[in-house]
């Protein structure tokens, strides 16, 4: 059977098979979807577990450079590293702003690295499911660390944090005023804040920025999933490759502590539940787009609203009645 | 009847009645919801039309100062101005970052102005519906201009643009590098870019920033809803109150052109249709949270997923079967 063949090759760590499997879970075709579900189901039984690290940063912060330097350090330690991009904006702009492998040329040439750009035609709900499935595939393929990168827009950060074991925020050195630009909610979500570009002319500013964030973080309530006295802001330089080992040490230490305390497994269980709820919501909504009476009623009532014949709310009530609800 | 009484007072321009009506549409209670729907339905028949201006800007850009100065200029022209805040992050952070009326003390004392901060406990879907209904209420109350402000996070900007006739992006003077921080999708969405703080030391930087954006905009394809040769970036100073009249002239000119060309009505019709589709989606999802067999099955299957007894996807399939779909 073809699915079993792909599964075997993914489990053996074959990167081409992994890429093909991810293409399968990214497909919107119904037959592909069924195959993808079967494949995920087959591979989930394997039980391999990577450290899933969500990584967010606004454009210009040097995220690609950081991922390349950090990834190379990890592969240098003998670890297998997968990089997945989650970019919900690619649907709107018609192309991924996270770009392609050429951003991380050195890392992409590493045998122990796997880089997957975000698909260019996806919707918000679809992005989450596909990303979660791609993570499972990378885990099955034996990757030790999965970096799930996203851009700093509120919604996508929440999404990526919801599928990661650790959530890392990469920030640029900045003046005191700009600290306000990072919202409290995002700061509270972050397990580790890295201030990049701690090099050259910006070294002093980066140190100050790091201290500012560390100070701001101390004012926040300690979260149950953090050990007492845990420091959550550190300076790094992706270009000079400094601070990377310290950042990795902080991440593994935190992950180990959470494993020992039960937070790690509890977080994954909670994430699985949230995924289930999302799948149900997505499934309900998918009905409206599938050819059939529901889609036809949506089109007819939508045209009526557009023509000004009825209000949006009245038409929605009518539609929900037709669906046997509301 | 009480609803008719509120409706009459809103139509008469009574600000206390308007505030009360908005509180009603913001309520999650089922009986309030029914009253709100009746009220909206009653008032929608009136057919008053304001200019709905969506306004987005990141924290620190001087949005409150701009709205106050711009609003006071408009009330000075004899226009009635309503300010509504749309802040989806307030649900997560537990409080609105857009603050309250004290931000705009002078404007809030104006008889021709109405300022409504965003509700503090709302969900993304809920925010959109309540904001749309609040807009309709302000229109019915005879406001000429409705400023719908939001913070610069991708999702909320799309939402606000989807309920506005014009979408204005307020930006701060910045170096060339930071231009990249504004995503192409957001730039394409903007009908007008205003570079604030074109005053004092920042005047020259603001002029350069404005020229940079104007240049970037010229590279974008002309949109059908814009007149030939339309310039979309201008400098303003909220503090020195300069450029405000020019900005208002650009907005009214654009709105008039769109009215004449049919784009204005077509946009509103399209927005009404999108609203209908959102309402249907929200109604379908509301079932899952309502006490009853669906909610119980969600809880039971969710617990099974959390306990690791079944995968998220398998549990979702089961749930959709129970709902008679999937």
Rg estimate of chain A, integer Å: 22 Å
End-to-end Cα distance of chain A? 44 Å
The overall strand count of chain A is 7
Helix content of chain A: 55-70%
Largest sheet of chain A, described in full?
A: 7 strands, parallel
Biggest interface, residues from each chain = A-B, 60 and 61 residues
Integer average pLDDT of chain A: 86
CATH topology of the largest domain in chain A: Rossmann fold
Describe it:
2 copies of one chain form a homodimer. Chain A has 326 residues and is of the alpha/beta class. Chain A folds into 2 domains: 1-46, Single alpha-helices involved in coiled-coils or other helix-helix interfaces (Up-down Bundle), CATH 1.20.5; 47-260, 3-Layer(aba) Sandwich (Rossmann fold). Chain A contains 15 helices and 7 strands. Chain A has helices spanning 2-11, 15-26, 30-44, 63-76, 90-93, 105-108, 124-140, 154-161, 176-179, 184-189, 203-219, 244-261, 263-289, 293-306, 312-322, and strands spanning 51-57, 81-86, 113-116, 145-151, 166-171, 192-195, 233-235. In chain A, strands 3-2-4-1-5-6-7 form a 7-stranded parallel β-sheet, with helices on both faces. In chain A, helix 1 (2-11) crosses helix 2 (15-26) and helix 1 (2-11) crosses helix 3 (30-44). The longest helix of chain A has 27 residues, at 263-289. Chain A is globular. Chain A starts with a helix and ends with a helix. The model of chain A is unreliable at 91-98 (pLDDT under 50).
What are the SSEs and their pairings?
The structure is a homodimer of 326-residue chains.
Chain A: H1 2-11, H2 15-26, H3 30-44, E1 51-57, H4 63-76, E2 81-86, H5 90-93, H6 105-108, E3 113-116, H7 124-140, E4 145-151, H8 154-161, E5 166-171, H9 176-179, H10 184-189, E6 192-195, H11 203-219, E7 233-235, H12 244-261, H13 263-289, H14 293-306, H15 312-322
Parallel strand pairs in A: 1-4, 1-5, 2-3, 2-4, 5-6, 6-7
Family (chains A, B): Belongs to the SIMIBI class G3E GTPase family. ArgK/MeaB subfamily.
Keywords (chains A, B): Kinase, Transferase
GO molecular function (chains A, B): GTP binding; GTPase activity; kinase activity
